[in-house]
Structures are given as structure tokens and as C-alpha cells.
């Protein structure tokens, strides 16, 4: 990924050339190496919201795992084969009938990247960072979600050495779904808390009724 | 930032560009070598005069540049020169 | 003298203005809440930001605030809470609040 990268078109930002220049110079001076840069790229590519969805789905079907996830997020992630190594703590907060959690980083854009990869653009926006702490319900409404009247909204501003993820509630009507199908219901938005997973639109099988 | 009045949250997501991936990777490599830390990088971002005018990754790169120059690892002139060369090659 | 807090303790965020890198958001300064949890000891980010060691490490606390105590115009439930992770040197013992 040095300046031999083929077909680099004129990017939309002058900073594209600057970071390529920085990379080239650092490589030439032996400050960093090509494999280190490649590792950095692979690191992010290997991480995505699918990891979070897996953690949630497992917690939904396994109470012991849920307990682990809520008490030691990194240990839970490792148990599922993820590499959560990071100087910050990884803490998962649970939604219940009584509370709904929302995550933000007003100071920059702290996000559990070691598990989930890059945060969405909206999470990093000035609008989200400004308003999520002050009017969380209005922000969630913009995402099409409104918690019921009697539910407390708990906003977590990741101001220091903790990264947060939400454990949403398992939607009803999913009793017959396996872990993979459950994970498919959990979007990245649900892990930040601007949304909740919905049961798939399907008729309840006769043998599962009442 | 927190609590300031602001407009609706834009929901659009741009495709992450290669240079942005590279920004993350270079930061990671520098961090791995102990040449730069998250806290230093955050401080450098916060110190950018044109913070509000830059996109997320533009701030990211500008801060990395600032730190490298501050630490005497690279000079602004050589970055300018090489960046200009790269842009010439692209156009 | 260093005060160590425990869960349930009332605390107030010190309303200080401090130059440089600070991880205590402005909107919390002078506000009162409670310690929700003791997170642990970490090197001081305000010093790490300038390449210093950040030691001795500082206690980091998860602090809860009632949203209606933070914003005059808060639109939500009375029980809505905001949590932030605040370093010990930004806290002083608190009193009152609406809890």
C-alpha cells in the first residue's frame, strides 16, 4: 500500500495525498514497515457489527453467557473467537422492559472498534454528539424508534477508558429461531441503541402457539 | 459539543475510501511502535484550528501529521513535497 | 488529600476551566450526581496526551446524573439518566441533587 498503489484516482480530499505521502516517508525512513501497515488494514477489515450481533444472539440463548457478557465483555468476546484486545474496557449494557440504553462519545467518537470495527458516519457527526446527551428520545425518533413511555432512557457518554455496546432485548416471536437467525436481527444501530431488533415478519408456527 | 444545539442527524454513510483505511492503519502502526498514543492523537485533533471544517478522517490525518512533525519524525516540508508529487502523478 | 468514592456516593463535577486536553465534558461541570460504579485505575489521559507517563494512575468513576438536573429543557422521563466516566480529580463530594 505504498505509493505504488495502482489506479489511485484523484480522491475527494487533499488529505488523501497527505496520508499517502506520510506513509511513503515513514516506510522509506524505516519508522514503520509494510507488514505493519497491512496488519493495520486487516485489523479493521476483520471487525464488524456482525461480531456484536453474535455476542447478542449467544447471550439471548445462553444465560451463563449473558452473565459473562455483562460482567466481562472482553472475556465473552474471546470466548466466541474474537480478538478484543485493547487498552480500554469493553462494557455491555442491557436493555430491559424498564430501561433502554444509548451510547455516544461527545468528546470524539469512542466506539468499541476492537469488536465492531468502524463506527457509522452518523455516530461521529457533530449533530449526534451534541444532541444524544441532551435529547436522546428525539434523536432515537429520527431513527424511527421510540421507547415506551414508562421506559427510562440511560445515555452513556464514553468519556474515558470504557467502550460501550448495548445488549438489546430479544424480540418476542423469535422463540423458534436459531442463533444465526437471531444474530441476523441485530443491526449495528441496535448495538448503539438508536434502534431495537424486530422479530421477522412471519406467522407463528402452529405448534408454538399458546 | 455535548448539549450544543444542532440539526437533524444525517443518516447517510459514505463508502470508506482507501486513504481513510490507510489513515487508520498508519495510526495503528505508529501506536504499535509506541510513537503515538490515542490520547496524544485526540489532543492533536482537538488542537486543529480548522476542526469544524474538516471531515472525520481529514482531522485524523491532520492530527497524525501534527504529531509526527512535533516529534521531529517528519517535517512539514517533506510531507508537502511528497504530497504534491503524488497529486501530480494522479492527475 | 485524595478522596476515594464508592458506589452511591454523591459527587459534583468540579466547575474548573483547565487548558489542554480534558476528558470531562463542559456540560457536566458543576453538575451533581452519584457514583454508579468504580471503574478502576488508569493513567491520567490529560498527561498522556502530552507524552507524559500519566502516573500515578487515577481512579475512574462511572457517574450518574439525572437528565433533568443537567438540562433545563430536558424532554423525557424524570428517571432518565446520563452516565459519564469521570476521573477522580474532576470530582468533589456532593450534596443535594434531586435523588
Describe this structure in words.
The complex is a heterotrimer of chains A (210), B (91) and C (99). Chain A has eleven helices and four strands. Chain A is α/β, with parallel strands linked by helices. In chain A, the strands form two sheets. In chain A, strands 1-4 form a two-stranded parallel sheet. Chain A has a two-stranded parallel sheet with strand order 2-3. In chain A, helix 3 (49-61) crosses helix 4 (63-71). The longest helix of chain A is centred in the N-terminal third of the chain and has 15 residues, at 14-28. Chain B has four helices and no strands. Chain B is globular, with a radius of gyration of 15 Å. Helix content of chain B is 59%, strand content 0%. By secondary structure, chain B is mostly helical. Chain C has a single domain, classed as SH3 type barrels, CATH 2.30.30.50. Chain C has helices at residues 45-48, 67-70; strands at 10-13, 32-42, 58-66, 81-87, 91-93. The mean pLDDT of chain C is 92. The chains are: A alpha/beta (210), B mainly alpha (91), C mainly beta (99). Chain A binds chain C through residues 89, 106-107, 133-138, 149-162, and chain C through 23-25, 27, 39-40, 42, 45, 60, 62, 67, 70-71, 74-77, 79-87.
Q: Which chains share the greatest interface?
A: A-B, 58 and 59 residues
- Write down the secondary-structure element order of chain B: HHHH
CATH class of chain C: Mainly Beta
Note the run of SSEs of chain C as H and E.
EEHEHEE
CATH homology superfamily of chain B? Nitrile hydratase, beta subunit
Overall structural class of chain B, as computed from helix and strand content, comes to mainly alpha
Q: Let me know the average pLDDT of chain B.
A: 95
Shape of chain C: globular
Structural classification of chain C: mainly beta
Distance between the termini of chain C: 28 Å
Radius of gyration of chain B: 15 Å
CATH architectural grouping of chain C: Roll
Report on the biggest sheet of chain C: 5 strands, antiparallel
Low-confidence stretches of chain B: none
- Specify the biggest β-sheet of chain B: none
